[in-house]
C-alpha cells in the first residue's frame, strides 16, 4: 500500500441511489463509468447496508456512527420531535471531531437543523419552500391524489405519466432541488477558495431522488419507463462526479484526496412495495453503494457485511484520530488491510413510513441479516406508538418474512414456514439487539435511570448465581412495577425468563388485568403459573355480607395462596417488584430479605414511581390501560379506585389494607 497523506476528504451521498443500478454492483450497461473507475482504484464494499430507509435518520447515523435507535432520532422531516432532536446533544458528529482536529469543514446540502453541526460553511442553498417549488403542488389540481395515480402507474405499467408529462414537455420545468452540476460548481469554488491544507467537503446530491427530471422531450414521454428516467438521473450525476474528479486531477489534488461515495438508502419502484416511498427492507431499499478511494488503501472488492455507521470510525482511523468508544460503528481499516476477516456478524435496519393517507395501515418494520438470511417483522398500531424511538412491545406483529439471499436474491420466496428454527433464532437476535441499543441510548440520555437499571440487573443476575433457576419465581401482578421487573429479567437473560412466573389470581382482579396477563404472556413466551385462593375461603368470601370480613378475607386469601405456592413448587426465592418509595412498610426493606422458609429478592427497591414510567416509555414496555384512566396502583377491583387529583400513588387503594400493610407483610404479603 502507498502511504500518501490525506489532505482532503470528499464525502458524497447520492440520495436514493440503489446499489444494483451502479456498474460496480452489476448494472449493465453501466450508467456510472466515472464512479466505476473510482471504485476500481479504491475499496468497494459489495454488501453495504443502510440503517434506516429515511434521509434524516439515515444521514444522522452515517455522520454519528450510531444506529438511529442509539441516538434517539428515528423519524424524518416534519415528524422529528423536539425530544428526538434533543437526544442528539450527546452524539459525536464527524464534522465536529474533524474541526476539533484542525480540519476545515464545508457542506453543500439543504437539510439544515442538526445536519449543520460542525461545519464552517453550510450552503443551505436548496432550502427553499418545497411546497412552493415542487411543480405538482401548483401546476396540477389535487396533487396528492394525482401522485397516487402516478404511483399506481409505476407499480403496474412501470411509467409515471403526470410527472413525466411535466418534465418531458414543459419548456421551463421547475426542479425542487439543486442539480448535480450546480453542486459540483459550488464544490470546485470551495476548493479554489481553500487556503488550508485539510478540507472535509460533504456533498449531498438529490438527482436520483424523485421526481426524476431527465431526460426531457416528447420521445422520453412516449418511450421511457421509470428505469430509464432513473438511470438518466444516475448518468447525469456520474458525469458531474467525473467533472469534479477531473478538476482534482488537473489541480494535482486527486492523490491527496480521500473520496467516499455512498447513498443514504435505495428506492422501490415496481418490485415490491409502494413506488418512491423507499419503504420496506428489501435489498433495493437497504443495500447501498459504498466505496472509498485513496492511494493509502489498496484497490479491492470486499464481500463482508458492513453498514453506514462504519464510515465514521473508518475515516477517523485512516486519519489516526481517536475514535469515540461509545459508537455502534466499527472501523473497516483492519478488514481493508486483511487483518480482520469479519467486520459484522449481522446487520440491523428499520423502516418508518409516515404516510399522509392511512392507506394501507401505518407500519413500522425492523429487520436483521445474519449470513445469507434476512428476517423482517412488520408492526402496526397507532402512530404515537409506532413512531416513538422504541415502539411499544405489545404492538401487533402482523407480518414476518424470512429470505435466503443466496438462493433468492430478488426476495420472491418467503421461508417463514419452511425454516421455523431460523425464524425463531433471528427473531430473538433482533429483539436482543434492540434492547441492547436502547440500553445504550438510556446511558446517553438518562444516566441516572441507567445506573438504577444496571443495579437491578446485577441483583437479578446475583440471584441466578445463588439459586437454581427452578428454585426462583417472579411474582407478577400485572401492575406496572412487576411488569417492569419481568422486562428486566428478560433483558438480563437475552430475551428469556429463566425463572418461574407466578400470578396470584384473587378472582377479583380487573378484567383488564386478566386480558393484559394473557396478552403479554403470549408476547413474551411466559408459561404463567396461576395460583388461587382456597375454595373454602372463596366460598366464605362470597357468602359473607360483612364488608369488614370480606376485606380481611381478601388479604388473608392472597397470603395463603403465596405460602401454598412456595411449598408446592419448592421455591427457595421469590422475586417481587416492590419499591422503597411506594409504602412506608417497605422503606426499610433490603434487596435480599430472608423469610423463615425462603428469600425475598427485590431488584426494584431503589426505583421511584417516576423511574418506572420513564423505563416503560423508554423501552416501550406494555402496561394495563387502567393507568390511562386515573389508576396509579392496582389491587383487587372491589377495593381499588382511580386516584383523586393531588392524591398519592396508593391513595386509590383500600385504606384499611394500607394501614395494616406491616402486619400483612409479616404474614407473607409482598
- Reading off the top of the CATH hierarchy, the class of the largest domain is best stated as Alpha Beta
Q: What is the residue-averaged pLDDT? A: 87
Instruction: Write down the oligomeric state.
Output: single chain
Structural class determined from secondary elements: alpha/beta
The largest sheet is: 9 strands, mixed
Indicate the proportion of strand residues.
15-25%
Helical content, roughly? Answer: 25-40%
Number of helices: 25
The second-level CATH architecture of the largest domain is 3-Layer(aba) Sandwich
Shape: elongated
Low-confidence stretches: 125-142
Number of domains: 2
At the fold tier of CATH, the topology name of the largest domain is Alkaline Phosphatase, subunit A
Roughly how many Å apart are the termini?
67 Å
DSSP summary, beta strand count: 19
Q: CATH superfamily of the largest domain, called what?
A: Alkaline Phosphatase, subunit A
Q: Mind explaining what this structure looks like?
A:
The chain is of the alpha/beta class. It has 2 domains: 8-342, Alkaline Phosphatase, subunit A (3-Layer(aba) Sandwich), CATH 3.40.720.10; 446-666, Rossmann fold, CATH 3.40.50.620. Helices cover 38% and strands 16% of the residues. Strands 1, 2, 3, 4, 5, 6, 7, 8 and 9 form a 9-stranded mixed sheet that branches. A 6-stranded mixed sheet has the order 16-15-14-17-19-18. Strand 15, helix 20 and strand 16 form a beta-alpha-beta unit. The chain is elongated and about 95 Å long. Residues 125-142 have low confidence and may be disordered.
Amino acid at each position: 500500500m502507498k502511504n500518501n497523506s490525506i489532505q482532503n476528504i470528499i464525502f458524497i451521498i447520492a440520495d436514493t441511489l440503489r446499489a444494483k443500478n451502479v456498474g460496480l454492483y452489476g448494472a449493465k450497461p453501466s450508467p456510472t463509468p466515472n464512479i466505476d473507475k473510482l471504485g476500481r482504484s479504491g475499496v468497494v464494499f459489495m454488501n453495504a447496508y443502510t440503517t434506516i430507509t429515511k434521509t434524516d435518520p439515515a444521514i444522522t447515523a452515517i455522520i454519528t456512527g450510531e444506529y438511529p435507535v442509539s441516538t434517539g432520532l428515528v423519524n424524518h422531516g416534519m415528524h422529528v420531535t423536539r425530544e428526538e432532536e434533543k437526544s442528539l446533544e450527546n452524539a459525536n458528529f464527524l464534522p465536529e471531531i474533524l474541526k476539533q482536529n484542525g480540519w476545515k469543514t464545508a457542506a453543500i446540502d439543504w437539510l439544515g437543523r442538526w445536519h449543520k453541526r460542525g461545519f464552517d460553511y453550510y450552503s443551505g442553498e436548496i432550502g427553499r419552500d418545497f411546497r412552493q417549488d415542487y411543480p405538482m403542488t401548483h401546476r396540477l389540481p389535487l396533487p396528492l391524489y394525482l401522485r397516487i395515480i402516478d404511483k399506481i402507474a409505476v407499480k403496474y405499467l412501470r411509467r409515471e405519466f403526470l410527472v413525466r408529462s411535466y418534465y418531458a414537455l414543459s419548456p421551463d420545468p421547475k426542479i425542487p432541488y439543486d442539480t448535480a452540476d450546480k453542486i459540483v460548481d459550488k464544490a470546485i469554488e470551495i476548493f479554489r477558495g481553500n487556503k488550508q491544507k485539510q478540507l472535509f467537503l460533504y456533498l449531498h446530491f438529490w438527482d436520483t431522488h424523485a421526481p426524476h427530471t431527465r431526460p426531457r422531450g416528447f420521445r422520453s414521454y412516449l418511450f421511457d419507463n421509470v428505469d430509464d428516467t432513473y438511470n438518466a438521473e444516475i448518468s447525469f450525476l456520474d458525469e458531474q462526479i467525473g467533472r469534479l474528479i477531473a478538476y482534482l486531477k488537473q489541480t494535482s489534488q486527486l492523490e491527496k484526496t480521500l473520496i467516499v461515495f455512498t447513498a443514504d438508502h435505495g428506492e422501490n419502484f415496481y418490485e415490491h412495495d409502494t413506488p418512491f416511498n423507499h419503504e420496506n427492507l428489501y435489498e433495493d431499499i437497504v443495500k447501498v453503494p459504498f466505496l472509498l478511494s485513496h492511494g493509502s488503501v489498496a484497490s479491492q472488492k470486499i464481500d463482508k457485511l458492513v453498514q453506514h455507521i462504519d464510515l465514521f470510525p473508518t475515516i477517523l482511523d485512516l486519519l489516526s484520530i481517536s475514535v469515540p468508544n461509545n459508537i455502534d460503528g466499527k472501523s473497516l481499516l483492519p478488514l481493508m488491510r486483511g487483518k480482520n476477516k469479519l467486520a459484522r456478524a449481522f446487520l440491523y435496519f428499520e423502516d418508518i413510513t409516515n404516510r399522509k393517507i392511512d392507506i394501507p395501515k401505518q407500519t413500522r418494520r425492523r429487520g436483521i441479516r445474519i449470513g445469507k438470511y434476512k428476517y423482517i417483522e412488520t408492526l402496526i398500531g397507532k402512530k404515537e406508538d409506532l413512531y416513538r424511538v422504541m415502539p411499544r412491545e405489545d404492538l401487533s406483529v402482523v407480518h414476518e418474512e424470512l429470505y435466503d439471499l443466496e438462493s433468492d436474491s430478488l426476495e420472491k420466496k418467503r421461508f417463514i414456514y419452511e425454516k421455523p428454527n431460523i425464524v425463531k433464532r433471528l427473531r430473538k437476535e433482533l429483539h436482543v439487539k434492540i434492547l441492547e441499543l436502547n440500553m445504550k441510548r438510556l446511558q446517553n440520555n438518562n444516566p441516572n435511570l441507567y445506573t438504577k437499571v444496571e443495579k437491578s440487573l446485577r441483583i437479578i443476575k446475583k440471584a441466578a448465581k445463588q439459586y437454581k433457576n427452578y428454585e426462583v419465581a417472579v411474582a407478577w401482578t400485572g401492575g406496572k412495577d412487576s411488569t417492569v421487573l419481568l422486562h428486566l429479567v428478560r433483558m438480563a437473560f437475552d430475551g428469556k425468563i429463566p425463572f418461574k412466573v407466578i400470578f396470584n389470581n384473587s378472582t377479583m382482579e380487573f378484567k383488564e388485568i386478566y386480558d393484559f396477563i394473557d396478552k403479554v404472556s403470549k408476547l413474551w413466551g411466559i408459561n404463567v403459573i396461576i395460583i388461587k385462593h382456597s375454595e373454602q375461603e372463596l366460598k366464605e368470601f362470597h357468602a359473607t355480607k360483612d364488608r369488614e370480613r370480606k376485606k380481611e378475607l381478601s388479604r388473608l386469601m392472597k397470603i395463603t395462596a403465596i405460602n401454598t405456592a412456595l411449598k408446592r413448587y419448592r421455591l427457595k426465592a421469590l422475586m417481587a417488584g416492590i419499591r422503597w418509595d411506594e409504602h412506608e412498610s417497605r422503606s426499610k426493606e433490603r434487596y435480599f430479605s430472608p423469610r423463615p422458609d425462603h428469600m425475598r429478592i427485590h431488584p426494584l427497591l431503589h426505583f421511584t414511581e417516576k423511574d418506572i414510567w420513564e423505563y416503560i416509555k423508554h423501552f416501550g414496555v406494555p402496561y394495563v390501560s387502567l393507568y390511562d384512566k386515573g389508576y396509579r396502583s392496582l389491587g383487587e377491583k372491589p377495593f381499588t379506585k382511580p386516584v383523586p387529583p393531588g392524591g398519592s400513588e396508593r391513595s386509590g387503594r383500600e385504606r384499611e389494607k394500607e394501614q395494616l400493610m406491616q402486619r400483612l407483610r409479616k404474614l407473607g404479603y409482598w
